[in-house]
Design goal:
single chain; alpha/beta; Helicase, Ruva Protein, domain 3; two-stranded antiparallel ribbon; 11 helices; 38% helix; binds S-adenosylmethionine
Length: 300
């Protein structure tokens, strides 16, 4: 990105005036990001990140001059954003539900749609004793820890177990747990519920597992930057969900809740799998704000 000079005068005034201000930097960046869905917001988030300022402060002081180091850093971030790198990987964090989560390219960037799963989990948990006392909650495929740690923060008396097959993802989740100062969260590395100690009986299992069919991945921009391990759901997208269901039925007690995030067109197929695995239970498909199937809930 070439940041435009403020004017064309000569001498010291040119040197003074051609310094990059917040206003000129944002203007040039919006031009460079014109193919993005939200160029203004993206530019403001990145400049705010570089300068340690909120968006309101940026907009209130367009005349403020960037240091050369800030201008160079901003230029580099805008180039990466223009090449398609997601903004949260550039700023290193992303808001989810009520908290801010560290994210790295080792974890999926938490999505707003997943907040429906957290809300369904909390609605179920709040029918039980205050603060989740005595409840054991398990998040399978925790990634950044978005689901597990949102639940742990909302239900401080519950025991929360967070599982991921990726050691690097678990490290991000652990860092987020320290940042949010949540306690009673246990991290396990391994394959689905096989990683959960035998003695632990889950009351609630929440899982946002990979659910994109393998053949669809190459055509999806999301797969260019986010970990394939977090996206690849096998030939029909349901390979991990199928395996989790087979494990879950062996692990839950009489009263339980199972919540699965799914793709927009997977509601009927996953509901059928759940009814086959847990006959006689109540299976409900919860839609997101766009009206798409998003979460399948199984309760006795
Ligand atoms: C779609 S991401 C969800 C991340 C996070 N829960 C969220 O909602 O933002 C799926 C996660 O499942 C993990 N995963 C993939 N296969 C797994 C397996 N066999 N066992 C446990 N975790 C797995 C991936 O590493 C990834 O972190």
């Amino acid at each position: 990105m070439n940041l435009p000079p403020v004017n064309r005068q000569s001498g010291w005034l040119k040197r003074e005036m051609s310094r990059t201000t917040i206003g000129t930097a944002l203007q040039a960046a919006v031009g460079a990001l014109d193919a993005a869905a939200s160029p203004q917001l993206d530019a403001q988030l990145l400049l705010g990140h570089v300068m340690g300022l909120g968006r309101a402060a940026l907009l209130a002081h367009p005349e403020h001059i960037l240091t050369p180091a800030q201008a160079a850093k901003f230029d580099s971030l805008i180039r990466q954003a223009a090449a398609g790198v997601p903004i949260p990987y550039l700023t290193g964090h992303r808001a989810f539900y009520l908290h801010d989560f560290l994210v790295t390219p080792d974890v999926l960037i938490p999505r707003p749609e997943t907040e429906h799963l957290v809300e369904a989990a909390l609605a179920w948990a709040h029918r039980h004793p205050a603060d989740g006392e005595g409840l054991t909650l398990v998040d399978v495929g925790t990634g950044s820890g978005a689901i597990a740690l949102s639940l742990a923060a909302a239900l401080p008396a519950a025991a929360v177990h967070a599982i991921d097959i990726s050691p690097a993802a678990l490290e991000v989740a652990r860092r987020n747990a320290r940042r949010l100062a949540v306690t009673d969260v246990y991290f396990h590395q391994g394959d689905l519920l096989a990683a959960l100690p035998e003695a632990v009986q889950p009351d609630l299992i929440a899982a946002n597992l990979p659910y994109i069919p393998s053949d669809d991945l190459d055509a999806l921009p999301v797969a260019r930057h986010e970990p394939r391990l977090a996206l690849n759901g096998g030939p029909d997208g349901l390979a991990l969900i199928r395996r989790l269901l087979a494990q879950a039925v062996m692990r839950v007690g009489e009263a339980f809740c199972l919540l699965l995030e799914i793709g927009a067109d997977q509601g009927a197929a996953v509901a059928t799998l759940c009814r086959e695995t847990f006959p006689g239970t109540a299976v409900r498909v919860i839609k997101d704000y766009a009206g798409h199937d998003r979460v399948v809930e199984v309760t006795p």
